[in-house]
Design goal:
The protein is an all-alpha fold. It is about 75% helix and about 0% strand. The chain contains 13 helices and no strands. It has helices at about 1-30, 35-55, 65-95, 95-100, 105-120, 125-140, 170-195, 205-220, 225-230, 235-260, 265-270, 275-285, 295-315. It is globular and about 50 Å long. The chain starts with a helix and ends with a helix. Mean pLDDT is about 75; it is low at about 145-165.
Length: about 325
């Protein structure tokens, strides 16, 4: 159980590094959320195959049932395709530090789906913990700051201070896409658990198949003319950043699959909310020029994490 917890925390740290690299790729290098999702998802296929070979699971493909493969493909499309795109759109609009806590609703959403689909029982303490997880995003919600009228100089020219900030936050867009990402991220664990419930030694295979499904859908969208033009615009300036982000998010997913193979879901999933704490720390270290970490953001992260910690404690002691 301790080993699974350590794997989960390592996964959370990898998710945080991915968020920081994505933010720099979008805000610093001028890339788009669609380009980021496209690059990182496609990179997951060769990374996944390499993981299957390295972990010695090449001969275990037969241990996954046909229905399991369908569930893994669906999980990949929902998580890596829909969820990651919405996640990157949110990061593009409001930054990684604000987007992360909003997606804390992944935990209560997964619990709710477990109650509905798996007949699990939720205690009052767990409901309180879920409330804290939801309160965290509410704390960090911010209104767009009011700007004063531009001061005119003696020559009638606009003051340089009145120029628009190129990194202006788009709160509504960011919060909406963060919520959509949370729903996608909360749905995929149910599909993964159903697929690998009887094949616990195929974590790398599960990761590879999920990425393969998402990549197939993304490649199919290239028939849309606008999508082809978007991909042609990819350049090496931010390919390096998204390449690193793709590697880190793949490692995060792989560690998550392995953690779930040796520890309970009720332990692994809430512990991954530590990614919010890691993201705030890494943002302050590396992205201070791109994001502003306010006291409200910090409080929101801590409240959300506190709810997740209480939730995992209650689930583990039932």
């Amino acid at each position: 159980m301790i080993f699974g917890a350590l794997l989960s925390l390592s996964s959370a740290l990898s998710f945080s590094v991915n968020a920081i690299l994505v933010r720099r790729g979008i805000a610093g290098a001028g890339a788009t959320a669609s380009q980021g999702a496209f690059i990182t998802v496609l990179l997951g296929v060769p990374f996944g195959f390499a993981a299957v070979v390295i972990t010695g699971q090449m001969l275990r493909f037969g241990e996954v049932a046909p229905m399991g493969y369908l569930l893994l493909l669906a999980a990949g499309i929902v998580h890596f395709g829909v969820g990651r795109y919405c996640n990157y759109r949110s990061v593009e609009a409001i930054g990684a530090a604000r987007s992360g806590p909003i997606m804390g609703v992944t935990t209560p959403f997964s619990v709710l789906m477990a109650v509905i689909l798996l007949d699990e029982v939720v205690t009052l303490a767990m409901l309180f913990a879920i409330g804290l997880v939801l309160l965290g995003p509410a704390v960090i919600l911010e209104r767009r700051p009011r700007t004063s009228a531009p001061a005119a100089s003696s020559g009638g020219a606009e003051s340089p201070r009145a120029t628009r900030n190129p990194l202006e936050l788009r709160f509504l867009e960011g919060y909406v896409f963060a919520t959509l990402a949370a729903v996608a991220y909360g749905t995929s664990p149910l599909l993964i658990r159903a697929a690998l419930m009887d094949a616990t030694r195929t974590a790398a295979i599960g990761t590879f198949v999920a990425y393969f499904g998402a990549s197939a859908v993304l490649l199919a969208t290239l028939v849309i003319p606008g999508r082809r033009q978007l991909i042609r615009a990819i350049n090496l300036r931010y390919m390096r950043l998204f390449g690193g982000a793709g590697l880190m998010v793949f490692l995060a997913q792989l560690l998550r699959f392995f953690a779930l193979s040796v520890a309970d879901v009720s332990v692994v999933t809430p512990l991954q909310r530590m990614a919010n704490v890691f993201t705030v720390i890494l943002t302050w270290i590396f992205n201070r020029s791109l994001e502003t970490i306010t006291l409200r953001v910090v409080i929101g992260v801590l409240v959300s994490f506190g709810g997740s910690a209480l939730l995992v404690y209650e689930a583990a002691t039932r």
